[in-house]
Write a structure and sequence with these properties.
Family (chain B): Belongs to the POMP/UMP1 family.
Mean pLDDT of chain A: 87
Protein name (chain B): Proteasome maturation protein
Distance between the termini of chain B: 26 Å
InterPro entries (chain B): Ump1
Low-confidence stretches of chain A: none
Strand content of chain A: 25-35%
Pfam families (chain B): UMP1 (PF05348)
Mean pLDDT of chain B: 79
CATH superfamily of the domain at 43-231 in chain A: Aminohydrolase, N-terminal nucleophile (Ntn) domain
Structural class of chain B: mainly alpha
CATH topology of the domain at 43-231 in chain A: Glutamine Phosphoribosylpyrophosphate, subunit 1, domain 1
Number of strands of chain B: 1
Strand order of the largest sheet of chain A: 11-2-3-12-13
Keywords (chain B): Chaperone
Largest sheet of chain B: none
Oligomer: heterodimer
Distance between the termini of chain A: 44 Å
Strand content of chain B: under 5%
Number of helices of chain A: 5
Structural class of chain A: alpha+beta
Order of helices and strands of chain A: EHEEEEEEHHEEEEHHEE
Largest interface: A-B, 31 and 39 residues
Helix content of chain A: 25-40%
């Protein structure tokens, strides 16, 4: 329908038309019962070791008090040598890392080089600062490039930290305790994997928002080893019976079939090239 | 250089008052503040970005550099379809360097798939300033 009060085509990007309506809704619901976005309430951790970077994450996604996803993948691919763990609002981390990955792919096609971790960090920082924290993405970026092994964290407002070991998410305090205790420079691979696993495990045990399995991603100059799951939770539920209803469970009371009358208005044939 | 419009929510009618026939009744509360903290900054983001870049360029390389670039921008901005049709803005994108970057404006709210369509005659008249 052509509307006569639309004088300009709508701008691309975010649309704030419903913001006023949402603000009015919050007043109506009295106590903020508006639907909450899916948060990942997470424990993610990363450690720089001798030959590269190890990233670890749990796999639980929560929506207020309910576990929405038990096998959520929180370690996102950015480029062949850079991976990113995301905590915060699930959709925001997903989309932001996708955009970052696309931008870096276009860059590496243009220049013929592998992207560096610091480029990914800069792009993220600009993007997140532009939206002043409205995009709830706490990210840990880890990667190996020609300048070495790097681990960065980017906050939702665009703050950046470069550190040798990190934890983010709602379980970060528990995980950081383990990391502070066990971290040393130039760890061996197995020790580093165990350290990250212990840190994420501590987050899972002591935080309600983290749980289920542990994923580990090892990035070295040779390649990436994405181990999913590294450790499965021992508290798995077993479905005893099938929950699908068999045919005939709901009785059919009446059936009425009305054939639609269609008349042929126009017939065209298009030749297909089959050589 | 363009000046960035601050009060982006001015009523659009002649003489600056609300045109009740076209846009309905006014409400002071709706016009005082944008309802979302990002609304104003997003509306003018590209303009602000350009302004900042040109001013930096002027400080580094002198007046002539942004002047030449502005001329090219102005020329590229004139290559458009009619207002109610979607133009690709290829020349403008190439000048800005946004032809090899992807942002939220390329994914969300694609104008080619917008649900609202304007009246073509009115949109052209608005663009030409006849309305």
């Amino acid at each position: 329908m052509a509307l006569s009060n639309v004088l300009d085509s709508p701008a691309a990007g975010f649309n704030f038309d419903n913001a006023a309506r949402n603000a009015a809704f919050e007043g109506l619901f009295e106590g903020g019962q508006t639907p909450k976005p899916l948060k990942t309430g997470t424990t993610i951790a990363g450690v720089v070791f001798k030959d590269g970077v190890v990233l670890g994450a749990d796999t639980r996604a929560t929506s207020s008090e309910v576990v929405a996803d038990k096998m959520c993948a929180k370690i996102h691919y950015i480029s062949p040598n850079i991976y990113c763990c995301g905590a915060g609002t699930a959709a925001d981390t997903e989309k932001t890392t996708d955009l970052l990955s696309s931008n870096l792919t276009v860059f590496s096609l243009n220049s013929g080089r592998n992207p560096r971790v610091v480029m990914a960090v800069n792009i993220l920082q600009d993007m997140l600062y532009r939206y002043h924290g409205q995009i709830g993405a706490n990210l840990i970026l880890g990667g190996v490039d020609c300048t070495g092994n790097h681990l960065y964290t980017v906050g939702p407002y665009g703050s950046v930290n470069k550190v040798p070991y990190l934890a983010m998410g709602s379980g970060d305090l528990a995980a950081l305790g383990i990391l502070e205790d066990g971290f040393q420079h130039d760890l061996e691979l197995e020790k580093a994997k165990k350290l990250v696993r212990d840190a994420v495990h501590s987050g899972i045990m002591n935080d309600l928002g983290s749980g289920n399995n542990i994923d580990i991603c090892v990035i070295t100059a040779e390649g990436v080893d994405y181990i999913r799951p590294f450790q499965e939770s021992e508290f798995k539920d077993r479905r005893e019976i099938k929950y699908k209803y068999r045919q005939g469970t709901t009785p059919v009371l009446t059936k009425k079939i009305t054939p639609l009358k269609m008349e042929v208005v126009q017939e065209t044939t298009q030749k297909m090239e089959t050589v | 250089m363009y000046s960035v419009p601050v009060a982006g929510l001015c009523p659009q009618g002649s003489y600056g008052i609300q045109d009740s026939l076209r846009s309905g009744f006014t409400s002071v509360k709706n016009e005082l503040l944008p309802s979302h903290p990002l609304e104003l900054s997003e509306k003018n983001f590209v303009l602000n970005q350009d302004k900042m870049n040109f001013s930096t360029l002027r400080n580094i390389q002198g007046l002539h550099a942004p002047l030449k670039l502005q001329m090219e921008y102005r020329a590229a901005r004139q290559i458009q379809r009619l207002p109610f049709l979607q133009s690709s803005n290829l020349a403008l994108d190439t000048l800005r360097g946004s032809d090899d970057t992807i942002g939220f404006e390329d994914i969300l709210g694609d104008p080619a798939q917008s649900e609202m369509m304007g009246e073509p005659h009115m949109m052209v008249e608005y663009k030409l300033g006849l309305l």
